[in-house]
C-alpha cells in the first residue's frame, strides 16, 4: 500500500510539472491570447545588436526593410549612456546580404554631438531608392518639457536617402515645417517601415506612419497621423490626422489593403490593453476616427504591420508583444484585409518590446525585435519564420 501511495505521488507531481511547463519546454502564451496556438518548438533567434556593443550602452527602436537588390537593412537607435529616451543617441544600421544569416559592421547614419537622433522609418521604393524619415531633439530636452512648451528646442523631423543600397546616405534635411503643426510638441516618425502605394489613383506615393502629442496648452492630446511624398521624397506633406478621440492614439504602423485603402494600427494608452485602428480611403490624406482592434492585446507598446501577396492572396502580418506586459512576441496573419487574425506564431515568450517585420521571400517573413531573458532591452534580435508554419 505504501509503495502505491509513493507511485501516485510521483505521477501527480509529474502531471503538475507538465502543466507548468507545457511538457515540451515552452512557456505558455499570455492568458489574454489563449492557448489555441502553442509556441514553436524552436524559438531561437540571433542578436543583431546587443547591450554594450560598439561602446553603446543600449540599442532600441528596430526598423527593417529589404532593398530591391535583396539586402536587409536593420536600423536602430544606439543609445550612448543608457536605455532612456533622452541624451546622446545615434541612428545606426547593419546590412545583411544573406537574408539575415549574417550581418555586417555597424554603420552610423546620423550622429549629432550629445543630441538625440532616432525614430527610423525607412521606405524602399520601386526604383530601389531607400528613403529614411527620422526625428531629432536636443539631448537635454525631455518629452515632458517638450510637451509643456518649456524645452530649449523641440522635436524636429528630418529626411535622408540612399541610392546605393544603403551603403551611403545624403546629409539629413529638415522637413519639420512641412509635416508638423505648431501646436504639437512631441513627434515620432514610425518607428517601423513606411510603404509605397501600389494601387489606385495615388499609386507610387510614399507614406510614413507617425504620431504626435499636442502641447499641454493646446490640450495635450495624442494623435496618430501620416506624412507622404508624391515626388520621390523631394517634398513631404502632412496627411491625415486621427480625429480627436478619448483614445489618444500613439505610435502607429500602416499597410495597404487589397482595394488600395490604408489600415493604420496604433498603440493606445487608455483602451484596456487593446490596440486601435483607423482607415484611409484617399491615399492617406484623411483618417477615420480610431476604434478598438478586437483581439489585439497589447501592453501599450509599438507594433508593426506588413502587407504582401502570398500565392495570389493579399495577406497581412502583424507583430507585437501579445500580452498585457512586454513579453510574448507574436506574429499574426490575416488573409481577409485584417477582418480576422486566426493564425499566429509565437516568436519569443520571454521579455520583448518594439518590433518590425519584413518579407524575406515568398515563403518566409522576418521579424526584427527587442528581446531578452530578463529585460526586453537586452538586445535587438532577428528571426526568420516559415509562412507555411501559419497554416
In short:
This protein is mainly β. The protein has helices at about 1-20, 145-150, 175-180, and strands spanning about 45-50, 60-65, 70-80, 90-95, 105-110, 115-125, 130-135, 155-160, 175, 185-190, 195, 205-215, 220-230, 235-240, 250-255, 260-270, 275-280, 290-295, 305-310, 315-320, 325-335, 345-360, 365-370, 380-385. About 45% of the residues are buried.
Features:
391 residues, mainly beta, Neuraminidase, 5-stranded antiparallel beta sheet, 24 strands, globular
What is the topology?
Elements: H1 2-21, E1 46-50, E2 58-66, E3 72-79, E4 89-96, E5 107-110, E6 116-124, E7 130-137, H2 143-148, E8 156-162, E9 173-174, H3 176-179, E10 184-189, E11 195-196, E12 206-214, E13 222-229, E14 237-241, E15 249-256, E16 262-268, E17 274-280, E18 291-297, E19 304-310, E20 313-321, E21 327-334, E22 343-359, E23 364-371, E24 379-386
Antiparallel strand pairs: 1-24, 2-3, 3-4, 4-5, 6-7, 7-8, 8-9, 10-12, 11-12, 12-13, 13-14, 15-16, 16-17, 17-18, 19-20, 20-21, 21-22, 22-23, 23-24
Amino acid at each position: 500500500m505504501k509503495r502505491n501511495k509513493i507511485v501516485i505521488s510521483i505521477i501527480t507531481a509529474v502531471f503538475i510539472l507538465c502543466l507548468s511547463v507545457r511538457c515540451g519546454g515552452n512557456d505558455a502564451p499570455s492568458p489574454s491570447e489563449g492557448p489555441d496556438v502553442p509556441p514553436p518548438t524552436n524559438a531561437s533567434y540571433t542578436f543583431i545588436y546587443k547591450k554594450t556593443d560598439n561602446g553603446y550602452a543600449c540599442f532600441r527602436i528596430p526598423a527593417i526593410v529589404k532593398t530591391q537588390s535583396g539586402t536587409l537593412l536593420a536600423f536602430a537607435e544606439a543609445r550612448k549612456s543608457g536605455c532612456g529616451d533622452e541624451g546622446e543617441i545615434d541612428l545606426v544600421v547593419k546590412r545583411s546580404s544573406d537574408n539575415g544569416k549574417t550581418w555586417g559592421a555597424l554603420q552610423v547614419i546620423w550622429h549629432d554631438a550629445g543630441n538625440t537622433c532616432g525614430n527610423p522609418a525607412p521606405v524602399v521604393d520601386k526604383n530601389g531608392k531607400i528613403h529614411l524619415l527620422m526625428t531629432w531633439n536636443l539631448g537635454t530636452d525631455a518629452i515632458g518639457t517638450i510637451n509643456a512648451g518649456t524645452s530649449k528646442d523641440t522635436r524636429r523631423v528630418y529626411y535622408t536617402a540612399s541610392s546605393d543600397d544603403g551603403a551611403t546616405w545624403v546629409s539629413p534635411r529638415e522637413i519639420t515645417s512641412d509635416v508638423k503643426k505648431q501646436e504639437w510638441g512631441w513627434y515620432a516618425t514610425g518607428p517601423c517601415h513606411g510603404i509605397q502605394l501600389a494601387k489606385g489613383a495615388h499609386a507610387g506615393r510614399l507614406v510614413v506612419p507617425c504620431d504626435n502629442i499636442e502641447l499641454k496648452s493646446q490640450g495635450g492630446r495624442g494623435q496618430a497621423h501620416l506624412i507622404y511624398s508624391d515626388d520621390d521624397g523631394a517634398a513631404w506633406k502632412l496627411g491625415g490626422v486621427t480625429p480627436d478621440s478619448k483614445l489618444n492614439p500613439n505610435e502607429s504602423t500602416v499597410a495597404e489593403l487589397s482595394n488600395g485603402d490604408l489600415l493604420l494600427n496604433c498603440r493606445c494608452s487608455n483602451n484596456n490593453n487593446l490596440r486601435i485602428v483607423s482607415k484611409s480611403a484617399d491615399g492617406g490624406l484623411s483618417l477615420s476616427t480610431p476604434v478598438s482592434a478586437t483581439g489585439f492585446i497589447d501592453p501599450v507598446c509599438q507594433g508593426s504591420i506588413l502587407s504582401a501577396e502570398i500565392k495570389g492572396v493579399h495577406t497581412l502580418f502583424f507583430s507585437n508583444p501579445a500580452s498585457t506586459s512586454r513579453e510574448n512576441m507574436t506574429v499574426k496573419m490575416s488573409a481577409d484585409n485584417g477582418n480576422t487574425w486566426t493564425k499566429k506564431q509565437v516568436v519569443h515568450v520571454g521579455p520583448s518590446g518594439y518590433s518590425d517585420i519584413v518579407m524575406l521571400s515568398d515563403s518566409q517573413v522576418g521579424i526584427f525585435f527587442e528581446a531578452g531573458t530578463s529585460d526586453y532591452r537586452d538586445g535587438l534580435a532577428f528571426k526568420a519564420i516559415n509562412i507555411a508554419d501559419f497554416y
